[in-house]
Amino acid sequence: MTDFDAVVLAGGRARRLGGASKPEIPVGGRALVDHVLEATVGARRVVLVAPEHLVRPGVVTVLEDPPDGGPCAGIAAGLDALGSDPAGLVLVLACDVPLAAQVVPALLAAVGGAEPGVDGARVTDQDGRPQHLLAVYRRRALDDAVRRHGGPEGVRGLPVRILLGGLRLVDLVDPHGAADADTWDDVHRLDALLRGAGADDGTIDRSGHRPTPDDEERS
């Protein structure tokens, strides 16, 4: 079995979702972050980079200091929290890819079978857009990338594509697994998909609320 750790990033602001707490938005009957944490099954250690109100039982939770440092600062904080005896591979996941569990095994296999010098594997959509936060990286490569940019302080606000720009990565095309919840339309599509084709009852509204029978009576 492949030895890996996992870092799940859930500390950002959902600007395109009107400031809703993206990790807590329900899709398919569960919070987005819980779908993503399920994709880390098999990891030696899991770190959730998130505010305290998102703490989950048995999961180490940290947040970059100061908060709102962006995903690169979150990655640096997560790596630090994994401890002094890390696994050779790190699974890095955003909190808004609820189908991640479907592609994690393929990512791990791609890195395990890669030629020497390959630093990881990431998912891309059908248009070739890379999902750097749906990927498996060699721990050494991530540590080196953070150091090159000045450590945890130097990566604050840095775009992920710049942090990881020098890495050699295998691309896996998987438009299904790469589906993320960036907008409310994305949320509605993922919710219907996870509930089964044609599931339109209890559609999530734009506040992230699923209407109840009482709500419907009042409408």
Structure description:
The structure is a single chain. The protein is an alpha/beta fold and 219 residues long. The chain has a single domain (4-184), classed as Spore Coat Polysaccharide Biosynthesis Protein SpsA, Chain A. The chain is built from eight helices and nine strands. The chain has helices at 32-38, 71-81, 104-112, 139-148, 151-154, 160-163, 184-195, 213-218, and strands at 4-9, 26-27, 30-31, 46-49, 60-62, 89-94, 120-124, 130-138, 169-173. Strands 5-4-1-6-8-7-9 form a seven-stranded mixed beta sheet, with helices on both faces. A hairpin with a 5-residue loop joins strand 7 (120-124) and strand 8. The longest helix has 12 residues, at 184-195. It starts with a strand and ends with a helix.
**Rg:** 17 Å
Topology pattern, helix = H, strand = E: EEEHEEHEHEEHHHEHH
Low-confidence stretches: 197-219
DSSP E strands, number: 9
Profile the largest sheet: 7 strands, mixed
What spatial order of strands do you see in the largest sheet? 5-4-1-6-8-7-9
- Number of alpha- plus pi-helical segments: 8
> Looking at the structure, what is the overall shape?
globular
Q: Give the amount of beta strand, in percent.
A: 15-25%
The CATH architecture would be: Alpha-Beta Complex
Structural class: alpha/beta
CATH topology annotation: Spore Coat Polysaccharide Biosynthesis Protein SpsA, Chain A
Mean pLDDT: 86
Kindly provide the name of the CATH class: Alpha Beta
Q: How many individual domains?
A: 1
Q: What's the end-to-end separation, in Å? A: 53 Å
Superfamily (CATH H level) name: Spore Coat Polysaccharide Biosynthesis Protein SpsA, Chain A
